[in-house]
Amino acid sequence: MSSPPIHPNLQQRRESFARRAESLIERKYAISTDKSGELIITVQGDLTQQEKRAVFLTVHDLGCNHASFQDFVNSPCMTEIKERSCFIHVDVPGHADNSGALSDNFAFPSLQTLGEDLVTVLDYLHVKYVIGLGEGAGANVLARFGLKHPSRCLGLILINCTGSAATVLETFKTKFISWKGDEVGQGAEDFLLYHKFGHQLVGDNPDKEKIVQDFQSRLHSTLNSKNVKQYVKTFMTRKDLPLKNCKVDILLITGMLSPYSTVVEKLHKDTDKEKVTMMKIERAGDVLADAPAKVAQSILLFCKGQGLLTSVVMPGVDRQRAFSTSSGGSNGMSMEEYDKPNIRRLSITVNDQLPPIQSKK
C-alpha cells in the first residue's frame, strides 16, 4: 500500500523547520587569495542547498568586521530572508576577531584588488553566483567585484557607496588623524564614528548610545588597530569607481543623515537608471542599525526582481494566499522548489552572463 499523502500544512511546517535548522549552520574558512593574502570567511547557512537559496556575499565597512552584517542578518526583520538564504561574510585582511597585526612587509590590497580577488572565495566554496551586499568601503569593494566578474554576480546592494576618489580635503584631514602609533587615538575614533554614523550619531534611534558603545568596544577590544589603520588608508587612496559600466542590477541605499548621502546621490546621477536604483531612508545615518526593517524590505524587493526569494511574502500579505497565487495554486511545487533561483526571471543583461542552474534529479 502506498503511504497516505502528507497534508500541505504539515509539509510546509516540516520545510520551515528544516530551513530554520539550515540557517543556524555556521562555518569559518581561511582562504588564500592571489594578491590579497588570507581572507577569513564566515558562512551562515548551508551552502550545499545553494540551488534552493539566495546566496549573499558581504563585505564590511571601516572600523568593523563581519559581525556588523552578521548582527543585521540575525535581526528579527531578516528571519524570513535568512531562512531561505546563505550569507558569505568576508573579513578583509587582518579584520577577523582578535587577529594579530599584519606583517610589516604585507602590502595591504587596494579596494580594486580586494574586489577582483573575491572570486577566489566563490571558487573555493563552489558557489556559482551571489548577490553582493556591502557597506561603505565594503560596498566599493563589491562594486569592483561586480564590474570584474559580472558572470558571478546576480546583483549588488550597496550601502553608502562612494563612486569618486578621495578629495584633496578628505585626504588632507585624514593625514592628521591621531593613531598614537598603531593604536586608535581619539581623532581616529572620531573619524570612524563620523564615517559610520554621521553628525547625528544614529539620529532618532532610541538605542543610539548602546550602538555607539558596541561599535567603540569592538573597535578597541576585538579589532587590531594597526590593521584597521591599513583599511582606512586603502579607502583614502581609492580610485574612481566606473559604476556606469556595470552589467548587473544595483540598489544604492543611503540614510538622509549619512555623511555620504550626497556622494551616493552623485554616484546615482552618473549611472544607467535602468540598472541602478537609489533608496534614501529618512532619519537614518547608519541604516543597518537605524532602519533594519526598511533595508530588509528593500533587499527582499530587489531579490524578487532578480527571481530570488519568490516565496517570501511582503509584510501585510497573507502567506498562504500569496503562495497559492504566485505558484499557480495546484502546480505541485513546494515552497522549497519555488524558492529555487529561476534564472529566466532575471534581467536580460544578467541572464546572458550566467551559466544555467542544473536542477537536481
UniProtKB/TrEMBL annotation:
Q: Which Pfam families match?
A: Ndr
For this protein, the parts annotated as crossing the membrane are none
Q: Which family does it belong to?
A: Belongs to the NDRG family.
**What's the protein called, per UniProt?**
N-myc downstream regulated
| Source organism of the structure | Chironomus riparius
